[in-house]
């Protein structure tokens, strides 16, 4: 296979800029998704009247509609009612909306896996609901949820390939533009695969390390 190495070298800065954009979107989307997911799971655990139903509806809506539809709704639909967001903001909000639902389910699974006897023990010691959540339930739930949270983080990073639909020059858009302009399909796709590998592999290794650390801290080797 003959590759145009000059084209590959000249294209590297474009992929570098797109990787930086992808990292920024993924970082904020994962961070905000964790916050949204944790809050939603706590509301569901305590079955807060009047809000639990809304949270369940949000989770089902976010998980059962494509990210592309959500982005179009935010970017084009909100503009119709006078709410305009920049492409970057729209991408982060859309991915947070999607990721929050998945993170909520991951946290919920971890919370429900905490033994009832530990909850009862905490209550018998006189802990309030907030203290019970802070010192007993959430630390154990987080340990149990780490694999699911990590999988969701990787999923969100890969989903950034959709944000090109709202005019952001992400990795996928860069590859498509280069293929359209120069017909260097093989070189462009190789660079695209390598770029995602550079982004995803360190994250995957980091999450595996974190999972081992928290499991060791909780259960020992």
TrEMBL record:
The chain crosses the membrane at residues 20-46, 189-210. GO terms for molecular function: transmembrane transporter activity. GO terms for cellular component: ATP-binding cassette (ABC) transporter complex. GO terms for biological process: amino acid transport. Belongs to the binding-protein-dependent transport system permease family. HisMQ subfamily. PANTHER family: AMINO-ACID ABC TRANSPORTER PERMEASE PROTEIN YHDX-RELATED, MEMBRANE COMPONENT OF AMINO ACID ABC TRANSPORTER. This is Amino acid ABC transporter permease. It comes from Paenibacillus polymyxa (Bacillus polymyxa). The lineage of its organism: Bacteria, Bacillati, Bacillota, Bacilli, Bacillales.
